[in-house]
């Protein structure tokens, strides 16, 4: 037996198994969070900067918008990924729930003046959020499988 093979694939010491499972989850969270941040930057580059459909605080590049990028989005991403369900129907309801949460936060950010619309409509967000959440979940699954494969090949 190779050292560090997760317990569901063979014999190993319990502490080693949990250690590797935690490491895979931690690395998967980090990589997926970085992906989410890059995706956010790309979306904002086009929809905010190029087309000015929405934005944070003021029009154009604003340093304060980094609070969202480095503060709110990583925390939301980790919460979303860590509690993602395994059953298909539960996934549908989970993504629908997170879409509602995102829409509520978007509304609150608009009310407080930290986010504005300039041609963007809430219905566009209601369509975009489920797609973005599915992309994040799929990306995490791919990263998780690649990390697991890498662990098994040691």
Task: Write a compact overview of the structure shown.
The chain has 154 residues and is mainly alpha-helical. The protein has helices at residues 14-50, 66-82, 88-112, 122-152, and strands spanning 54-56, 115-117.
Pick out the low-confidence regions.
1-21
What fraction of residues sit in β-strands? under 5%
* Rg over CA atoms: 19 Å
Helix tally?
4
How many β-strand runs?
2
Helix content: over 70%
Let me know the average pLDDT: 82
Main sheet properties: 2 strands, antiparallel
**SSE run:** HEHHEH
Q: What class would the helix/strand composition place it in?
A: mainly alpha
N-to-C span: 11 Å
Q: What's the shape?
A: globular
Strand order of the largest sheet: 1-2
Question: Can you offer a commentary on this structure?
Answer:
By secondary structure, the chain is mainly alpha-helical. The chain has 4 helices and 2 strands. It has helices spanning about 15-50, 65-80, 90-110, 120-150, and strands spanning about 55, 115. The chain has a two-stranded antiparallel ribbon with strand order 1-2. Helix 1 packs antiparallel against helix 4.
Fill in the keyword field for this structure.
single chain; 154 residues; mainly alpha; two-stranded antiparallel ribbon; 71% helix; globular; disordered N terminus
Task: Indicate the topology.
Blueprint: H1 14-50, E1 54-56, H2 66-82, H3 88-112, E2 115-117, H4 122-152
